[in-house]
Each structure stands twice: as C-alpha cells, then as structure tokens.
Design a protein that fits this description.
Elements: H1 5-19, H2 24-28, E1 64-70, E2 73-81, E3 89-91, E4 102-110, E5 113-121, E6 128-134, E7 175-176, E8 183-189, E9 201-205, E10 222-227
Antiparallel strand pairs: 1-2, 2-4, 3-10, 4-5, 5-8, 6-7, 6-9, 9-10
The chain binds copper (II) ion (CU).
Copper (II) ion (CU) is lined by residues 132, 134, 148, 203, 205, 219.
Length: 230
C-alpha cells in the first residue's frame, strides 16, 4: 500500500525542513487557506522566488510557494489570493472568482503517481467550477495558460477525444463549493510529470468538465488561474 497523501505531505514537510528549503512559518500553515486574514502575515515563502511581498504586514495576503524533493518525489505547495493583477493567482472574472478569494494547491509527483489537491475559499456558494492542470503559467488572459497537460499527448489539438482528454491522462479538479463558498478537490493519477514536460498552472472554468467525444475536457470559459510549477 502506498502511504496516504497526508503522510506524504508530512514527509515533505520534514524533508523540506531538514534541508532548509522553506521557512518555518510557511510550514506551520502548509495550505494557509483557512487562516483568517492577517494571522499568517509571515507565511510568504522564499524558496521558489515567486512570492510577492509588497503589501504591508497587516494586509499581506496568504501567499506561499514552496518546492521540495525527497528521493524521486517532487512536492509543490502554492497558496495565494486571487486578484485581477495577481502575480500567482489571477481572476479573469471577479463576479464568479471574486477579488480576495483564496486558493491552495498541493502536489506530490513521483514513483509513477501524482496526487494533486485544490482548495478554494471565497468563491460563490453552492457553485460548480471546472478545474484542470494546464501546460503554461498564468498570464494576462486565460488563454496564456495553454492547453491541458496530458501525460499521453493527443496528436490532435485541441484535444476533445476522451481517449486522451480524461481524468486519468489529465489532472482534473472539478469542485462544487459549499454554502460558504469553500471547495476541495483531489485527484490521483498513475504517472509522474516527466522532468522535461510538466504542468505549470491550474485553471478554474465555468462549469464541470465534459467527457463525451468532441467536447471531452472542455469546461467553459477560463475564470481564474493559479501558477503552480509542478
Ligand atoms: Cu482547463
């Protein structure tokens, strides 16, 4: 049996701590998502160099980008706040992904398995969103994130063939928020990101993901994006 994702995260935390890759405050709140604003003012991490830290301590968003490796296992954690001009997490439609809503992504990839968890808060209550890993980092527009990451690449792009555009060959993280606008999704696929070809973002979409021939993988417009250098 493989270890649980939680224990993998704990192992990552220990490994990262031992190698000094991330700050202790970031480790104390690995996702940082459910922390009240301002309570983790020092959680901005340093390792990956993507964290923004220009706000004053009292208004600093819950932002952390951490990256670590233990053996063949690669760990990623990103916590960020969506804003229209966000460096890490960007909303393209504040009506459905409001300015100030939060996102956290954790990933472990290695030993022929990848587990990714997406957590959001501050979104519309009782609302369905699509979400997937995309090939490029977030940009000024939703299209900048490129197509979905596919482990086995469909020779026909854009890919709407369910043999390739499915939740075992791609990272799908569709979720439905609760009455408070909080949502969680997790996926577990039986491959690891190739060293030279990895996903670089999670995109939130208008609705859950279609699975039928000709529309497989589509989930409507791109509402928001968080850069995760898997
Ligand atoms: Cu997508």
């Amino acid at each position: 049996m493989r270890p649980s994702f939680r224990s993998l995260l704990a192992a990552a935390t220990i490994a990262a701590c031992a190698s000094g890759l991330v700050t202790a405050t970031a480790l104390a709140t690995p996702l940082g998502l459910l922390e009240p604003s301002g309570s983790s003012a020092s959680s901005t991490s340093t390792h990956a160099g993507h964290a923004s830290g220009t706000a004053t301590p009292t208004t600093r968003p819950v932002t952390a980008v951490t990256s670590s490796t233990e053996g063949e296992e690669q760990y990623r954690q990103v916590s960020a706040v969506f804003s229209p001009n966000g460096a890490i997490a960007r909303t393209y439609d504040v009506r459905v992904v409001p300015n100030g809503s939060k996102v956290a992504v954790t990933s472990s990839s290695g030993n022929r398995e990848t587990v990714v968890t997406l957590e959001v808060s501050g979104l519309l209550p009782n609302h369905s969103y699509g979400a997937h890993a995309h090939t490029k980092p977030c940009g000024v527009t939703g299209t900048d994130a490129g197509p979905h990451f596919q482990y086995e690449q469909d020779p026909t792009q854009p890919s709407t063939d369910p043999r390739y555009a499915n939740d075992e060959n791609e990272i799908w993280l569709d979720l439905t928020t609760d009455a408070k606008g909080v949502g969680v999704a997790s996926t577990d696929v039986s491959w690891e990101f190739p060293a030279n070809r990895r996903a670089h973002s999670i995109v939130l979409h208008e609705h859950h993901t279609a699975t039928t021939q000709g529309t497989a993988g589509t989930a409507g417009g791109r509402l928001a994006c968080v850069t995760v250098n898997f």
